[in-house]
Amino acid sequence: MIRYDHRDTGRSQSWPPGRPGYTGDDLVADAARVLDGFGIAAAHVVGVSMGGALTQVLALDHPERVLSLVLMSTSPAGPGDGLPGPAAEYVEFLRNATVDPSDPRAVAEGVVAEVRVLAGSERPFDEAAVRALVARDVARADSYLSAGNHMQVEGGEPWRHRLGTVAVPTLVVHGTADPLFPIEHGVALAAEIPGARLMRLDGAGHGLERPDHEAVVRAILAHTA
Question: Which of helix, strand or coil describes residue 98?
Answer without folding.
Answer: coil
